[in-house]
Amino acid sequence: MGAAADIALAQGLERVTLRAVAERLSVRPGLITHYFPVAEDLVAEAFRRAAAVERERFFPTDGAPIERLRRFLVHVDSGASMNLAQLWLNARHLARFSASLVAVLEEQDALDRSRLVDIIRDGVAAGEFATGDAVAAGIRILLAVDGTGSYANSGEAMWDPTRRRFAAEVAEWALGLRAGALSSSLSTQR
Question: Cβ–Cβ contacts within 10 Å for residue 100, how many?
Fold first, then answer.
């Protein structure tokens, strides 16, 4: 599935085909069909794998909660998550036509939300964040990330500092942090 995930991240889910994966692996398409008789399932699995691999880079598990959140936001702000933003846009679009992709989207969204909510709960427990509802705060932050990511295909518009800092500013608001506590550490240049 790594080959399919690589294709998805680099070229989009439409390029994840039995033939493309078989060529990448230097095998016959029939071998891929053996494991994925329905191409739609191959596409959904490619998205699942790519999202899981990126999640490990996206959500740090070590350090103080505010530092973990800051690293997450720097990852978003730096453009390091651009391929992932494009992949999520692509998957949400194609999900209109694929029940299996809808299921994988919901699963991956829940896993990302859980990772972020864990950071927030750890931060509340450590006295770093002030929110009575970690789940709501996590959803708000992810909505801001998704909103920013919706410009992933918009060229220079993506790099406007107001858009780039939006997720960090929403996180500050949602977590009861002073203005600039997270957003001031983000780069002002592309």
Answer: 17
Distance CA 74, CA 53 (A): 18
For 51-62, how does the pLDDT look when each residue is reduced to its tens digit (9 = 90+)? 888 888 888 889
Tokens of residue 108, six digits: 């991956």
Distance CA 10, CA 165 (A): 25
Going by C-alpha positions, the residue among 75, 50, 52 that lies closest to residue 171 is 75
- CA separation for the pair 82, 50 (Å, rounded): 13
**Cα 82-85-88 angle, rounded to 5 deg:** 150
> Tokens 């959803």 belong to which residue?
139
Q: pLDDT tier at 164 (50, 70, 90 boundaries)?
A: confident
Q: For the chain, how long is the longest CA-to-CA vector?
A: 57
Q: How far apart are CA 129 and CA 121, in angstroms?
A: 8
HEC per residue, 116-143: HHHHHHHHHHCCCCCCCCHHHHHHHHHH
